[in-house]
Amino acid sequence: MKENCKDQDLALVGRARAFALGAHAAINQRRKYTGEPYAVHLAEVAALVLRVQDVTAEMVAAAWLHDTVEDTAVPLTLIETEFGARVGQLVGELTAISAPDDGDRATRKALDRAHTAHASAAAQTIKAADLISNLRTVEARDPQFAAIYMREKRLLLDVLTRADARLRSDVRAIIDDYFTRQRADERA
Q1: Which of 57, 62, 111, 170 has the CA that lies 20 to 30 A from 91?
Q2: How large is the C-alpha radius of gyration of the chain?
Q3: Can 70 be counted among the known catalytic residues?
Q4: What percentage of the chain's residues is helix, strand, coil (to nearest 5)?
Q5: Where are the domains of the chain?
Q6: CATH topology of domain 7-187
Q7: Among residues 9, 71, 80, 152, which one is catalytic?
Q8: In this predicted structure, what is the pLDDT of residue 177?
Q9: Which is it for the CA torsion 139, 141, 143, 147, positive or negative?
């Protein structure tokens, strides 16, 4: 996308950005732990996706929109109508499928992991960028929950087999570094 950026690519990304920011702002969504506007997370995920070698406008648009269906009242059909089938497909692949009545947290995470395992390389790449953004925040702000979260995300990383290799490596480094420090703390 970077080298052959067309006006319609820029327009698609700009519309997706504006739509996502508006949807999350409408519910005054804030980042858990930091209280920052949710736009900070969305911008970080989109920026990480832009680093990927074979990035497309649809991937960047989906990066902006990746939590819209899951966190707001916007249905996936509206994403598909507004941004096209490919962006809708990516957002659908990125949206958790579990519901609170599907069982305990471990059961729900297993369902979502299975869904992500079947996602396209583009969706898995966006998910890896999402993980990087979230992993950085959770460890710093909630050390007790971080241990559970890091174990869950290590399992999720195992199914991101088609994600961009550099982003996967970054996720693995964050998780490995966390567990290395935990083992060192236990020995101290």
Answers
A1: 170
A2: 17
A3: yes
A4: 75, 0, 25
A5: 7-187
A6: Hypothetical protein af1432 (1.10.3210)
A7: 71
A8: 95
A9: negative
CA distance 135 to 129: 10
Residue of 36, 54, 70, 177 marked catalytic:
70
Beta bridge partners of 30: 37
Q: Decide if 90 contacts 62 (C-beta within 8 A).
A: yes
Burial of 83 (0-12, 13-18, 19+ CB in 10 A): buried
pLDDT at residue 44, rounded to an integer: 97
CB 100 within 8 A of CB 139: no
Q: In the prediction, which pLDDT does 186 show?
A: 83
Are the C-beta atoms of 156 and 76 separated by less than 8 Å? no
Structure confidence at residue 142 (pLDDT): 85
* Residue whose pair of structure tokens reads 């966190």 in the numeric block: 71
Which pLDDT score is estimated for 185?
81
Q: Which residues pair with 37 in a beta bridge?
A: 30
Report which residue type is found at 61.
A
Amino acid at 153: K
Specify the pLDDT at position 51: 95
* Widest pairwise Cα distance in the chain: 57
The question of whether 71 is a catalytic residue gets the answer: yes
Kindly state the helix (H) or strand (E) to which residue 114 belongs, with its residue range. helix 105-117
Residues of the chain with pLDDT under 50: none
C-alpha to C-alpha distance for 89 and 131, rounded to whole angstroms: 19
Amino acid at 146: A
